[in-house]
Amino acid sequence: MASEEMEQLVRREYKDGFVTDIESDTLPPGLDENTIAFISNKKGEPEWMLEWRLDAYRQWLKMKEPSWAHLDYPPIDYQAISYFSAPKRPEDRPQSLDEVDPKLLETYEKLGIPLHERAALAGVAVDAVFDSVSVATTFKKQLAEAGVIFCSISEAIRDYPELVKQYLGTVVPKTDNYFAALNSAVFTDGSFVFVPEGVTCPMELSTYFRINAANTGQFERTLIVCESRATVSYLEGCTAPMRDENQLHAAVVELVALDDAYIKYSTVQNWYPGDENGVGGIYNFVTKRGECRGDRARISWTQVETGSAITWKYPSCVLRGKDSIGEFYSVAVTNGRQQADTGTKMIHIGEGTRSYIVAKGISAGKSDQSYRGLVKINPRAKGARNFTQCDSLLIGDTCGAHTFPYQEIGNSTAKIEHEATTSKIGEDQLFYCQSRGISEEDAVSMIVNGFCKDVFQELPMEFAVEAEALLNVTLEGAVG
Amino acid sequence: MSDTQTFLDTLKTRSAEYAGEPSWIAARRQAGAARFEAMGFPTRRDEEWKYTDVRGIAQGHFKLADDVDFSQAQAATLSLPVEAHRLSFVDGVFAPGLSDIDALPQGVQVMPLSKALAENHEAVGGPLGRLTGVDFSAFAALNTAFMEEGAVVRIAPNTVVEKPIVLQFLSREGEAVMCHPRILIEAGGRSEATVIEHYAGEENAANFTNVVAELMLDRGAILHHYKLQEAPVGDFHVASIHVEQSRDSVYTSYNLNLGGALARNDIIADLNGENAYTNLYGLFFGQGRQHVDNHTKVNHNAPLTFSNENYKGILGDRAHGVFNGRVFVKRDSQKIEGFQSNQNLLLSDRAQIDAKPELEIYADDVKCSHGTTTGQLDEDAVYALRTRGIDEATARGLLTLAFAGEVLEQVALDAIAERVELAVAGKLPERFNLAGLVEAAAALNE
Q: pTM of whole model > 0.80?
């Protein structure tokens, strides 16, 4: 590719960068017990929830920020972050899309996500998180008929306290890690899904996350529970406006699958990655974990990670039930000065448990990417099976790609396989395509998409389309 | 009293021995002691020691041996049956009676470290500690603080050494002792040699060996390096091997690990010149409560460098194996090929393996891959053998040996390959019933 063309593409600005000017009811920066009491009060939470948060906060104070990841970023000042930001008029929450602040709708328009259209056409219920308060929930009625609960976690704490109490923090304990503890103390919103016994959720559930309002970290808490023989597919997608200051995001996602339940959790993450000098960009420290608590339960994580300056994320499965299955499909793309340390953990506890890991990493520019995974087979997990495939593609000679797979096997009946390769796009592959009249950029796009195919196949249809487009945009101009 | 203090106190009792040594040696010794004191023994909180607990060493009380009493007859049964230039050490102390370095070819120097230190020989002045500094690990620091004995091997440029050079370390029963051998090998340009480190000993010995080896390969040098560790099952064995390769050099390591209560091997190869080639072959076998930990690191510091690694582990009973292999490719080190394979066979439900094959890559025109598998014998293969009239136990034994064979067939010295194969066959659980097979194999070899 001509160098000026490449230059131009590399200098391309973040397409989704803009700030919506909505007055926020924002707390001044700082974190202490009063902050937590304020959040809890603002959300109208019961006493036990406040206690739960404060306990997490006190434990967090004693914890140390982890430093083992292959990441390099300046220290985070947790007192410089504002821990609550909500759109105005909380009592006057819109009941339908018509009542939604037009500026918010405009934001979605700019993102190319016409909420109403998309919801109606795709048959998707959208619980949109704009900053920290859910402002629109659709198809709630249809879901209610099926017996599915889909609401914000705040509503769930208010309306279904017993359910929340029963499951919250049982997969990711309050003090699981530094960022999970912080999230437990200050989480402001997120989704709650409960699918009762024997119910297949009639539609794919989707939440679009947006980070907005300067200096506001987002602390989402999502809890999905599938009772016996229940099934749900959950989609999570993210974009964020352009900003100079680093934004901290420390989410926690917990999945619980009982006997024969199936939870499919898909993510497309495209937060602001920072500019070409690595200024700005989201710091994404996420704890995602699912537990196959019942026999034959199945949890599947699919993620397409193209955004964020720093990604620290290991969606994991605890395979407790007999013959339960954990899956992890991931495409991570880093460009510019992005850094990603991501992977999964598969903890085999039950007999006959199986896990399947496919991780594809693409590094370009001056970015650095690591796959970090753990496959642990307990002595009691007889006949456990794991297959791991993790491939890295390097584009350009200034990036880095690393693999750190941990295998801890304590059982002779286990069968564990791990394969990893690192390579670049072959000159011969490019030549082959170009000799057939395909432009270099199209050829690269084609090869990269082929490289990621195993993962994209796992995405729901509309996400797969978005993911392919995202991939092309993210890697535009990366090959020369 | 802290664990480190026990060792530092032992070091103090040695100070009279060290009086009057050249100042540069005294300075290194002090640096080693200071670094060891500051670091302390590693714990499982250290990433490099995540799966290996060294408290058995740290809490031990090990003396230093002074004599080399060892019967010739017993030494003969333990020694490798190969014609070689040989340096022998008993509990770390040089044993001239068991050594044979009289007929060294021209251009080859082989001497005990004590001699080189006493003479302030040029072979130690520069190289000693250049590759393995005291910061590498607490064990390397401890080795530097206690360095007294070991081996110095120098091969002049363009010299091909026909016979292998064997460095034999024997461990004795009785009071628990420790030794900290230091091995320095300088392979001159376009030289070729075979060096065998061999660890063995009396059945009930329970000593601590902490060896540091520094290997330098000049342009075009070829070095075959065997490390056959068949120390008594009560021994603690910690070893690091640091290899520096100039362009066109070929280093091949055979790390054959059978003995010891706890064995930890660190092998680091720095490929610093174009067209340098590293082969790392490893076989580890554990039974009882043996713990064996292999860490390898291949640093592709220059473009056009190649590495190939194949490690196989067989673990029975309650043995615990660890494999941690890292391939590192430096920025701008293009046209690299790095392959790594690790396969483990678990023979018992209580055996455990922790594997971590890592790739750390900062260049794009590279072909790197790693694969690791853990499992049990293929039942189809067992069935196939049984249909041919082989009883099940023998079939399993044969398949286990075949699994080990994939590494052993790379071993150029037949005497060593056979010895290890027989040792593995002899150690397999009863149900593998290989006695007959072993006899037949032994008869064949005679």
A: yes
